[in-house]
Amino acid sequence: MTGNGAIGEAAIRAGCQCYFGYPITPQNELTEYMAAHLSRRKGCSFIQAESEIAAINMLYGASLAGARAMTSSSSPGISLKQEGISYLAACELPAVIVNMSRGGPGLGSISAAQSDYFQATRGGGHGDYRTIVLAPSSAQELVDLTQRAFDLADKYFIPVIILGDAMLGQMMEPVEFRHEAPAEPPVRSNGLRGAAGRPSRIVKTFTSKPSDLEEINWSLFRRYQLIKKQETSCETFMIEDAQMVVVAFGIAARIARGAIKSVRANGLKVGMLRPVTLWPFPCEKLQELAGGVRQYLVFEMNMGQMVEDVQLALAGRGEVAFYGRPGGVIPTPSEVSRVITRLYYQKGLEISK
After folding, report:
1. Of these four, 7, 81, 249, 290, which has the most CB atoms within 10 Å of its CB?
2. For position 194, what pLDDT does the model report?
3. Partners of 247 in the beta sheet?
4. Burial letters for 143-156: b for 16+ Cβ neighbours within 10 Å, e otherwise?
5. CA torsion sign, 47 to 127 to 160 to 150?
6. CB under 8 A, 24+ apart: contacts of 49-55
7. Which tens digit of pLDDT belongs to each residue from 8-61?
8. What is the pLDDT of residues 224-250, one digit of tens each?
9. Where does CATH 3.40.50.920 sit in the chain?
10. Closest CA to 68 of 223, 187, 204
11. Across all residues in the chain, what is the average pLDDT?
12. CATH topology classification for 235-346
């Protein structure tokens, strides 16, 4: 399946009941898939909204009513949804938001890029809040992480962002679906489902007393600390004897993996750390690596946004270099292998015989 189609099927099998979207390249195939297939499940609704702002507010309402719900868009469309995402976080409402990102800033290009890292991992909108951010690197992971996104959203009452890109959305790979949709979606304590006999509840984001809002913020903060402790995940590749570690996420990690295989054949001891959760970021794993590895290369398809998180995690215990291609330019593994090789020799690192 294409990546966009795989997300759609995975969402349906995860029990998604409502999808609200608005067309934008390169995620239109996801909207098309949901339009064609969501209705096969009884009681499920697809709505093409009149705008991205309308779509996120429909998602807000559906989640409040207790439905498993999702929206999707691409970079500038996600920008328009940020106020609604902040509202979802403030009201502690679960939701899944898919961003198949493209080149930016502005309308940019429709080619694959990773320029939305800051937008996703820093909350994106106003106020003190976070969203869980999952970064798949294959069509199979799009399937698996879509399921996980719905489960995490329900577990922590939080919006979850799946951050893909144009290449992931458009390419076609074999996928396996390991989950079937539950017969009945889970009951949510802060939604209306199963609320018979309960007093009416008004859910709102405005709080007139600063002390009340402060307590809401601290409550959210404590939950975010719990998420950091329990849900951080990453993948490592050939790090056992590495003298240099490449840090990359998403489709860039696929490119970096090919480059690492190439330089390994030439005796260069290079490995990779791939964050699967961009927030929470795998700081502890990087700190663990810093006990034996000094050199790091952050590779992104942007101007160096994840670099800040790598530097913060290492806290001066490693040297961090950066290589990236912004604007939708897609580098090849051979290009990245040349960058790795040049930096490796510059640092005088050990070469296997």
Report:
1. 7
2. 47
3. 273, 298
4. bbbbbbbbbbbbbb
5. negative
6. 49/20, 49/21, 49/22, 50/22, 51/22, 51/80, 52/22, 52/24, 52/77, 52/78, 52/80, 52/81, 53/80, 53/81, 53/83, 53/84, 54/20, 54/22, 55/20, 55/21, 55/22, 55/81
7. 999 999 999 999 999 999 999 999 999 999 988 888 999 999 999 999 999 999
8. 999 999 999 999 999 999 999 999 999
9. 235-346
10. 187
11. 94
12. Rossmann fold (3.40.50)
**109, 326 contact by CB (below 8 A):** no
121-174, pLDDT tens digit by residue?
Answer: 999 999 999 999 999 999 999 999 999 999 999 999 999 999 999 999 999 999
- Report residue 14: phi and psi, to 5°: -80, 0
C-alpha distance from residue 72 to each of 137, 162, 247 (Å): 18, 9, 27
Nearest 5°: phi and psi at 329? Answer: -75, 130
Mean per-residue pLDDT, 83-88: 97
Question: What's the mean pLDDT in 77-104?
Answer: 97
> Who contacts 206 (Cβ-Cβ below 8 Å, separation ≥6)?
none
Question: Looking at the predicted structure, is the pLDDT value of residue 182 above 80?
Answer: no
* Token couple for 141: 């992971």
- Chain Cα centroid distance, residue 291: 28
CB neighbours of residue 226 within 10 Å? 11
Least confident of 191-200, 222-231, 249-258, 306-315: 191-200
CATH architecture under which domain 3-231 falls? 3-Layer(aba) Sandwich (3.40)
Residue pair 135/275 in contact (Cβ under 8 Å)? The answer is: yes
